[in-house]
């Protein structure tokens, strides 16, 4: 199987630090800002980001996990039903600036569903999107990230594989592969 490295452990670390400084510049002391990691894969990025933000700024930013499974437009069209993940938000987002955090932006369907799901927690003042990888030319919806680590050009048949050491891989890395790999 052909595999091309997009980001290694060091590059991911640099991008996460850059995200922190961008957020610090754009969100005054995080007084009206919350971060939401999109389940299931965006929460890994969120957790690392929140930890670094607290180390760099000394501010504990409200954060949570958002599952949009039942808001997806393909929920009932799949042969195998999707498994819902935990939504863990213990605050209202009414009049807050919300930063949605995910690992890869592909079609935009998950982000669209997340925006629907987040309304249950209030009407945000503003919504921004942060992703490690932006697959530029693959959108079904007019969605683009406010913050991205790397933009890549990929074919529909290719897959962006995000590997986290915390999930049993050798180290954090992001690859483009010809098919989806499954870690046993």
Automatic annotation (TrEMBL):
The UniProt keywords, alphabetically, are: Glycosyltransferase, Transferase
* Phosphoribosyltransferase domain sequence ranges: 7-163
Entry keyword Glycosyltransferase: yes
**Which CDD domains does the protein's record reference?**
PRTases_typeI
Q: Which InterPro entries match?
A: PRTase-like, PRTase_dom, PyrR_bifunctional
GO molecular function annotations of the record: glycosyltransferase activity
Pfam families xref list: Pribosyltran (PF00156)
Quick check: keyword Glycosyltransferase in the entry? yes
Entry-linked PANTHER family: BIFUNCTIONAL PROTEIN PYRR (PTHR11608:SF0)
Protein name per its UniProtKB record: Bifunctional pyrimidine operon regulatory protein/uracil phosphoribosyltransferase
Query: What species is given as this protein's source?
Result: Echinicola pacifica
The gene from which this protein is expressed is pyrR1
């Amino acid at each position: 199987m052909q595999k091309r490295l997009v980001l290694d452990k060091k590059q991911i670390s640099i991008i996460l630090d850059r995200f922190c400084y961008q957020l610090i510049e754009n969100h005054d002391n995080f007084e009206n800002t919350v971060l939401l990691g999109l389940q299931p894969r965006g929460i890994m990025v969120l957790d690392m980001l929140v930890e670094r933000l607290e180390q760099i700024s000394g501010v504990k930013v409200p954060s949570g996990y958002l599952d949009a499974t039942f808001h997806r437009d393909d929920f009932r069209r799949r042969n195998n039903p999707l498994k819902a993940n935990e939504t863990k938000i213990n605050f209202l987002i009414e009049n807050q600036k919300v930063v949605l955090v995910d690992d890869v932006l592909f079609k935009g369907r998950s982000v669209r569903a997340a925006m629907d799901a987040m309304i249950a927690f209030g009407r945000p003042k503003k919504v921004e999107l942060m992703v490690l990888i932006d697959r530029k030319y693959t959108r079904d919806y007019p969605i683009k990230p406010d913050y991205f680590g790397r933009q890549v050009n990929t074919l529909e048949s290719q897959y962006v594989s995000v590997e986290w050491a915390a999930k049993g891989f050798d180290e954090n890395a992001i690859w483009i592969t010809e098919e989806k790999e499954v870690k046993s």
